[in-house]
Amino acid sequence: MPARLILNADDFGLTRGINRAISELHAAGALTSATLMASGPAFDDAISAVRSHPTLGVGCHVVLTDGTPISPPQTIPTLLGPDGKNFRPRLSHFTRDLLLGRIDEADIAREAAAQIQKLQHHGITVTHLDTHKHTHIFPQVARPLLIVAEHMGIPAIRNPFEQPWSLALGCSPVLRRIQLRVIHHLRPRFLALPQIQSGRILTTNGTLGISATGDLNTTTLAAILKAMPDGLWELVCHPGYNDSDLDDIITRLRSTREVELSALLDAFANSPQQLPNRPAFHLINYRDLHNAAT
User: Fold this and answer.
1) Cα(258)–Cα(254) distance, integer angstroms
2) Fewest 10 Å CB contacts: which of 161, 184, 190, 261?
3) Percentage helix, strand, coil for the chain under 3-state DSSP, each rounded to 5
C-alpha cells in the first residue's frame, strides 16, 4: 500500500502572512492540514481563512511555552513564567521545571482544554492536537493532553518522534541532531500511553521534517519524500511570509518560512515530476487517519 502523508503547517494564527501562506498552499494542493494557535495574534484572520478553505484539516497547536494562556492565570499557576501572566518564554526553562516536577499536569490539562474550546467555539472541528515546540515528547505533557483529547472528542495526536532515516536527511546542526536522537528514547513511552496503545486516539508512524526545521528547502524536502517508506507519516512545516507582522514576533524562523513555502510549492504544485523513481503516495489530513490506519 502506498505511503500516506499529512502535510501540516504549524503556527497557524501567528501572523497574517503565515495564514496567507497556508491558504495559498492548501489552494495549490501543497498543504492538507494546519494547527491553529488559540492565542495567536492573527487568530481571527485564521478563522476567516478556515471558512474560505473547508477542506483544510485544522488541529489545535497547544501552546504551553513562549506564549499567552487562554485560562485565567490564577487557575494555571505552575505554567506561568516570572511575570505571572504569560508562559515561560524559554523552552529550556519549561523543560527544566517539567522534569523537576514543578509543573502540574492538571494545569496542562486545564489550559489545553481552554485552547481547544476556543477553537470549537469558533466552529472548528478539531482534527488533532500537537504542541508548540513539540513539548508533548514528554510523558508529563502527553498524558494530560491525551486525557483531554479523549474527553473532548479529539480523535488524533501528532507522533512527535522523527525516524532515524529522516533525521539523517534533515541537515540540522550536529548538536540539534544529537538532541533529537537523545529524546528518541521517549518514543516507546509515548506509544505505550493507554489512549495510543488501544487506538482510542490515533497517531502516525512518525513526524518528518522536525530536524529540517529552518532548513526545509526544495532539495531537503525532495530527499525526504524520495526516502519515505510505506506507512502513515506527517511532514511538519512552518511556511509563511517574512513581513512586518513577523517582525513583531520573537521567532528564529523568519526568511526560512518563505523558503519552506517555495519548497512545498515546488514539490506538490509547480513541478511534482521532480520526484522520479519513487512509488506514489497519498496526501491526507488527520480527518482521514481512521480510514488510512485500517
Assistant:
1) 8
2) 184
3) 50, 15, 40
Q: Residue 157 is placed in which grid cell?
A: 495526536
Beta bridge partners of 35: 59
Work out how many domains the chain is built from and give that number. 1
Taking Cα atoms as reference points, which of 205, 195, 190, 189 lies closest to residue 148? 195
Contacts of 174 (CB under 8 A, 6+ apart): none
| Amino acid found at 109 | A
| Euclidean distance between CA atoms 126 and 268, whole angstroms | 25
Alpha helices (H) in 56-200, listed in sequence order = 91-99, 105-121, 139-152, 164-167, 174-183, 187-191, 194-198
Beta strands in the chain (DSSP E): 3-12, 33-36, 57-62, 129-131, 206-208, 232-237, 281-284
- Rounded Cα–Cα distance for residues 239 and 209 (Å): 12
CATH value at residue 224:
3.20.20.370
Give pLDDT, residue 180. 65
What CA–CA distance (Å, rounded) separates 258 from 268?
Answer: 15
Q: Is the pTM of this model over 0.85?
A: yes
191-228 tens-digit pLDDT: 999 999 999 999 999 999 988 888 899 999 999 999 99
* Contact present, 98 and 107 (Cβ < 8 Å): no
pLDDT tens-digit readout, 254-284: 788 999 999 999 999 865 445 545 457 899 9
- Kindly give the parts of the chain with pLDDT less than 50: 272-273, 276, 278
